[in-house]
Amino acid sequence: MYVEVRGQKTYAATGGKEFDNSLPCVMFVHGSGLDHRSWALQTRWFAYNGYSVLAPDLPGHSLSAGEPLESIEEMGAWLADFIRAANVSRVHAVGHSQGFLDVLELARQAPELLKSITGVGTAGAIPVNPALIDAAKNSAGDAAEMLLMWGFGPDAQYGISAVPGMQPIAIGRQIMARNPLYEDLVACANYENGSAVAKSIEVPSQLILARKDRLTPIKAGMAFAEELNARVTIIERYGHMLPIEAPRQTLQKLRELISSLEEAA
Amino acid sequence: MSRSSYLKPDTVALHTGYVPESDHGSRAVPVYQTTSYVFESVSDGSSLFNVEQGGHIYSRITNPTVAVLEQRIAALEGGSGTICTASGMSALFTVFITLCSAGDHMISATQIYGSTATLLKHTIKRLGIECTFIPINDEQALRDAIQPNTKMVFCESIGNPGLEIANIPGISEIAHENGIPLVVDATFATPSLCRPIDHGADIVVHSVTKWMGGHGVAIGGAIVDGGRFDWEQSGRFPELTEPYAPFHGIKFWEEFGPSALAMKMRAESMRDVGAAMSPHNAFLILQGIETLSLRMKQHVANAKALLEWLQQQQAVTWTNYPDMESNPSHALAEGLFPDGAGSMLCFGVVGGRAGGAAFIDSLQLASNLANVGDSRTLVLHPGSTTHSRLTVEDMKAAGISEDMIRVSVGIEDIADIKADFAKGFKAAERAAGES
């Protein structure tokens, strides 16, 4: 569906069902250069199992209009405006990689909008190699190649796909090459609030980490989980692109936390 | 360059799509000669049917062995996904009916495989889809043929049987200016010699029966979704951008983006038409693909050596090979096929139709049959077989002469191929003397 946020047409996937704000809402936030499609194998399950789903494309990404936002702080503020524009009171926020930094900022700026937070393949800070930023400045396609080569785990590099017949690396490249990867990477590199925000978060939190993650190494994720006092799951064999590489395992962990919270509510 | 993998092509051909499975550690890809797959629960089955998760349901839609082949071909071509089908013709039919509906229009090069031409001229027409045929690489004719309801442009990267080279960059540029995808049948080249997606094609089709398999023991087809075409921006494809009723109103483009077309073909054509590749055939084609680049190198080397030798034979009246220097498509072939423009060649023999027939009948090593792309050398005399019912004028219009011999050059020792052909030329010369 399309929602108007700050006067801009914004696309949000709803998991294949009409959005119903009376249902408990799960919001999925994509990572650098990506879009709502990175959550294709999680959003539909929630939408068809009693939840409402919002998986926005951030401004200037894929199906959303507008200029890309320049900082994680701005992205957090934008997410708050997006939730309000969708007329939702509180969400379970799930973020992949940079998307989790956006969620952290949302938590700092508008904690009243959150029921829980989950980070997938992420940490409290995501330093970015200056060479990658330089590459992205010149060509999103070239930078996408570097990110995907490092981002996907060993099985995906050998063409293993959760969806029969498909090639996730090619799909990721097509999406990243058209999106403002440079702006996203700069925003990631500059974000330093993670640890401070972690101390203030009061809603339940979890991190789903990948053993073979080479972009946000598991060590950084584990350290941040401790700061956040989050429950942690480590998924073996897979790399940074967990929602795509290990969709079932990722979904299972999301279901466990979110369902338990909704049942308790 | 369009990439699906960071492994090199020869490694992709051997490994992509499969890691040794956990139950038995089988190093080679196992054959899942199976129809259906147990759901963990009712909820699990429901989520598979509703595309909430990936996985296998029923082998008409997907099969674990076929999926390995699909992922391997996608990686070799640099596409976002592949659908394998029962044959090359069913692959083409799947593409045509996925992109076109009754009342739609498409454009095809005239210089294409005879059965494809029949499909377009008669079968597809019966479904209310019109096709305009234009000479390949005629840019003005292409521009003139485009209509508001045109849904695709189709050509073969190397035409069959005339071996014309398609100017893929030029054709795709015009097609894209008009929001139309370019579909390329790349059977004669294989991704080892040319990856059409790198040159602007949006969808690539193969008869994997031919060089991809190479062994001549399994029929199959493949459709590669290049993943680059913007179906929404085109404005011509509501089937991909608007709700699809049989699947809870799913919008393929919004939901799947670069794999929208492949997912649509899977969800619709494989479900409704059911032209699925058999798991055993997928296994056999995988055995061929493992050695694809090695074989293609030898195919091309033999084709070039045979061509050079043919040009010195008195019984040979003419020769045709796409990147032969005298061929008008030489420069194009060099650009698109830097490692050689395949292993098909044609030539004429003395004695016309009788000479051609005598040549074929006297061969022992080369097989006289209606196929191409086998590792063995194959020959055909169109004037006596596939086109024997045509008049001389009709054959000429199809780019075929009475004396034409079509050769799919194999990977045997070139000396043996030459020796076999030498016997054929003596027979042709005798036939020419008698007539």
Q: Notable features of this structure?
A:
heterodimer; A: 265 residues; alpha/beta; Rossmann fold; eight-stranded mixed sheet; 8 strands; 17% strand; B: 435 residues; Aspartate Aminotransferase, domain 2; Aspartate Aminotransferase, domain 1; 2 domains; seven-stranded mixed sheet; 18 helices; globular
Structural class of chain B: alpha/beta
Going across the major beta sheet of chain B, what is the strand order?
A: 1-7-6-5-4-2-3
Helix content of chain B: 40-55%
Proportion of residues in helical segments of chain A: 40-55%
Could you tell me the radius of gyration of chain A in angstroms? 17 Å
> How is the main sheet of chain A built?
8 strands, mixed
Mean pLDDT of chain B: 94
| N-to-C span of chain B | 55 Å
Structural class of chain A: alpha/beta
CATH class of chain A: Alpha Beta
Can you characterise this structure?
The complex is a heterodimer of chains A (about 260) and B (about 425). Chain A is of the alpha/beta class and about 260 residues long. Chain A has a single domain (about 1-125, about 190-265), classed as 3-Layer(aba) Sandwich (Rossmann fold), CATH 3.40.50. The mean pLDDT of chain A is about 95. Chain A has an eight-stranded mixed beta sheet with strand order 1-2-4-3-5-6-7-8, sandwiched between helices. Chain A starts with a strand and ends with a helix. Chain A is about 45% helix and about 15% strand. In chain A, helix 1 packs parallel to helix 12, helix 2 crosses helix 3 (about 100-110) and helix 4 packs across helix 5. In chain B, the strands form two sheets. In chain B, strands 1-7-6-5-4-2-3 form a seven-stranded mixed beta sheet, sandwiched between helices. A five-stranded mixed beta sheet of chain B has the order 8-9-12-11-10. Chain B contains 18 helices and twelve strands. Chain B is an alpha/beta fold and about 425 residues long. In chain B, helix 1 (about 10-15) packs antiparallel against helix 3 (about 65-75) and helix 16 (about 350-360) packs across helix 18 (about 415-435). Chain B has helices spanning about 10-15, 40-50, 65-75, 90-100, 115-125, 140-145, 170-175, 190-195, 230-235, 240, 250-255, 260-270, 280-290, 290-310, 330-335, 350-360, 390-395, 415-435, and strands spanning about 80-85, 105-110, 130-135, 150-155, 180-185, 205, 220-225, 315-320, 345-350, 365-370, 380, 405-410. Chain B is globular. Classes of the chains: A alpha/beta (about 260), B alpha/beta (about 425). The interface of A and B includes residues 35, 48, 149 and 248 of A.
